[in-house]
Amino acid sequence: MRRTGEEGHGPVRYGPPLPGDGLPVLPELAAVLAAAAHRADPTPVGGTPVLLEAACGHWTRRGLPTHPGRVAAAPGAAPLLLAVTAALAGDDGDILLPRPSPAWWTPCARLLGRPAFHVPTPPESGGVPDPYALLETVRRVRAEGGRPRLLVLSPADDPTATVAPPELLHETAEVAAAEGLHLISDETWRDTVHRPHDTAPVGPAGMLPGRVTVVTDLAGAALPPGWPAAVARFPEGPEGAALHARVLDVLTALGARIAAPVTAAAAYALDEPRPVVHRRESAVRLHARLAGALHRAVVDAGALALLPRAGRHLYADLEPLRAPLARRGAGDAQELEDLLTGLLGVPVAGGHRFGDDLGALRVRLTTAPLTGTGDRERVLSLTSSNPLELPHVRGALASLTSALDDLRDEARR
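-> structure tokens emitted (413 positions)
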């Protein structure tokens, strides 16, 4: 059984941060932040009453009735996940993650000194482990003396941009419950499903109400990435109350308070007034079009990728292009990341950042750079009825398509 960090290829090199949605800040959101800029007093650890009430409304509208005593907020998803993981795993619990999984999940386990085991996902989607692979992994970890306690999953996934089928999520949740695991469901990208009427995301909290903690990162999905805020919903009952208290203890020890202006903006976004909903829907439509174009370019070049169904990314497997890539010095995911970042002029993340094997030629592409290089181009992208015909979008796609087509043509020679 191989543990995270024991792959034998040394530490991962972290490149520049990837952008959010690439779009200008919503004016109404900026106004709320500006109006609260004078607030200098520290906010309460775990969130202000206004923010917690807004989070309750957010989840209640999604079929998860919630009260403030079961909600906590933190300045970003990483410290919040760290606090929840520390409260659940303690000093002797093992953590299970899907492979691939968001790049910020594994460092939380490493910071706590806890083993993290990656479990394969099924071929049709990411974010949720295959239930049979999960069962096998849990039993193997226990046979080796481990104590698996926590499974982190994501029904609407980053990095693969897929949405797990409800039946898969239900089967995996059943296995997790039978094996005594607590689930953390990262539902950051739930509201970015490209075709919400065709692919309604389902979370495990409704399936296992006493064993699931829901985490939502607002920064990047509902707020600009530079405004860190995240919220967590804990289960009902004594176990949920105890977990909530332990998480608040950890956040207090970390001094993890959300700045007052960001708190105001987060509460406004969670209340979902019409400007926020309209911007979200417009951004989802735009990024769905851009992700579809990225998918066509990748597949036409002979590479592999699942059709993106949520978020702003595409997870591509360039294994069919290994020979021409090797001639250009790209024999693993880090070298592929370096090569494509140089060729395309935008950040490209190798699959090794998401728990995939270093030797696999997988990368996550993002749609944000296609929206434009300034506010004028980005607003045009957001408001256009046919953004793929805008000159700056066509140019960015042409650059990507040309680079991939060169590799395809070289592979055919």
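Residues 115 and 172 are 21 Å apart (CA to CA).
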